[in-house]
Amino acid sequence: MQVIEDETSRLIAWSEELRRVHERLRQALRLTRRAFDGGGDVHSASRELLLYCHGFCVALDEHHRAEDRTLFPAIEAANPQLAPVLRALQQDHSMIAHLLSGLREATDGGAAPGVLAGHVEGVAAIMESHFRYEERSLLAVLDTLELHALTAEALGSI
């Protein structure tokens, strides 16, 4: 008898999934930064930046919304003592959303590459600090979390 397991019925190592999502978001940020280093035609670089910045912003925002909606409530239900950590992470999500909004406004408004680079670096600094804190605080808990959900529901679709 062949058993076909889907994503919701298999045992998901949520800590590994979180690491993978974080690495993909870090890669998206690296690609966005590389678009600034392209030099050459400013209008061509601006079009690339617009694409990379929008894609990165959407992916990061979606990741945080999925965590707030699905992953964090499951963690808190299983580990109520982590409520303060989860609230701090949600505050980070709110701050990052505000920074992403500023980046989107700058890209939509045709801001100069230097202005856009400043926005990206601000997001990058907070994002990396947030990811490291989240990984330090939650990876061990995620190793034992029983959550029956699609990865995209809990961590976003990136």
What does this structure look like?
The protein has 158 residues and is an all-alpha fold. The chain has a domain at 63-145. Helix content is 77%, strand content 0%. It is built from five helices and no strands. The protein has helices at residues 14-37, 42-78, 83-108, 113-142, 151-155. Mean pLDDT is 84; it is low at 1-11.
In short:
This protein is mostly helical. The chain contains 5 helices and no strands.
Terminal Cα separation, in Å?
34 Å
Note the total helix count.
5
- The radius of gyration computed from the alpha-carbon positions, rounded to a whole number of angstroms, is 18 Å
What series of H and E elements makes up the topology? HHHHH
The tally of beta strands, per DSSP, is 0
Q: Give the percentage of residues in beta strands.
A: under 5%
Unreliable runs, pLDDT <50, ≥5 residues? 1-11
Portion of residues in helices? over 70%
- State the shape: elongated
Mean pLDDT: 84
Biggest sheet architecture: none
SS-derived structural category: mainly alpha
Main attributes?
158 residues; disordered N terminus; elongated; mainly alpha
